[in-house]
User: Fold this.
Amino acid sequence: MRKRHTPKDRLITVALHVALAAGLFFAAFPIYWMLSSSFKSNTEIFALPPTILPKAFTLEAYAAILGDPVKLRFFFNSYFVAGAVTVLTVLIALLAAYGFSRFNFRGKGSLNTIIISTQTIPPITLLIPFFGLVVSYGIFDTYVALILTYLVFTLPYAILLMTGYLNTLPRDLDEAVAVDGGTSWTALWRVIVPISLPGIVATSVYTFLLCWNEFLFALTLTKSTSMRTVPIGIQLLMGQHAFEWNQMMAMSVLGSLPLLLIYLVAQRYFLAGMTAGSVK
Amino acid sequence: MTRQKRSHHKLKRAVAPYLYLSPSLLIIGLLMLLPMVTVIGYSFQNSAVLRRDPSFAGLKHYQAIFDDPVFWASLWHTLYFTCMSVIFHMTIGMAFALMLNSDRINPTLRNILRVLYILPWLFTAVIIAVIWRLLLEPNGVVNSILMQIGIIGSKVEWFSSPETALHAVTFANIWAGYPLFMVSLLAGLQGIPKDFYEAADIDGAKAYQKLIFITIPQLMPIIISISLLDFIWTMQVFPLIWITTGGGPIYSTEVLSTYTYKLAFSSYNLSQASASAVVILLISLGLTLFYIRYQKAR
Assistant:
């Protein structure tokens, strides 16, 4: 049993809470600053001394972003590409995971190793050949180019994540279908998919995040403003109006909303997805 | 079942997994493995991508890279950036995980703090870069606070002076990346059997002894595998540096990824960029083999 309420013990508890508060400041202050700056006028952002709460609360930065069709297009592009890649990835990964989880076949072990190792291939290495391919197939500056390239990066994790999930489902379920004369295909769609929803959600969340955050390929494989995604949009905004910090912060807040919402609504799946690479 | 039917069924079972895997294999093969071979090919060609019939260049482009002092500077910056990031991600992640796991804090507070400590993880690299640019502006809030406390005498241009830029981007990356460690270690801490600590209590072990002899050894597998992954991923960081400093001022934050990108898309020297990309690939592959071996041995 631990002795409590001795002076030394109380001191440790107080010290711990001080450390927790310092940690909170470190973790959350930059985000608080983004949020509060997005509600300030541009002159107030650099007021001395800095104002912790916006003195003159204003939505002008948000109005400027949401009233500009060019910027709305960035958001549309990001949602569209991330959504399309998520649907494709989940479908393709589900099939592969089913193959991995329910069958034994030659080369299974080495295929699994290849898929694990593709997680660590540097994007910059693939960027140059992709650029060559995309230009020679005439799909430079199109959605197709982005969707295809993102698929390559989302698929390996998604397969591992889905396989891990399917392995937790008892095999008797699909064997029952086989006894009734059904094929593995019917077992997949009738039995496995309906009970795999948690795995599918985790995979979708992970895939969506990865696409939403992607920068390097969106920067290189698109060119016209109407094809740009949110991360590139923020960079463009910085180039055009280098000192419109309130607009940049408002756009950052809007660009973070999907991830924040997913995190708040589906924390468990979010964490499952984000740590996917580190658990085999 | 007749024998014919049974063998037909068997054949189906044998072919089925390949059918299920075929879309994935097609995509990974055509869009990942083939491009890797392609980029290696490019690195041995003159005017790769730009010309239809490039001539063979031998090791010329590798030679050019190894003769380039900026390449070596980038390699050094990458190492510094990566090592510091991984060390601090681990330390901060561990500290936060241990604090949150302590039975001295109220469970509600614990849950709230857990959510808040994860926050930096929810933001895209580009947004993190923009936030830190605002914070570290010469007229920004960090300088203002540091001057009030008296730590610095005059405004520091964190991202635009060669002495501080590398430290500043590293700091921003440390802030952005510790939650992966925190979340994994927190899960690991909850998996350590309680009786280990009870036995240690009976033996009269002090808190730091329990940390060194029970907690850290138990968490070692997680620490090693997350460190390896973090090392591989941090080595490849591009947007954070691209947006904050762009590799400057005077190459002081140039890392392998920005160096390669500039070679390819600012100088359009795609052959030399390919050689540089292959070097990055080889480093990553070496680390990956190490990681896979470790995972298998576990």
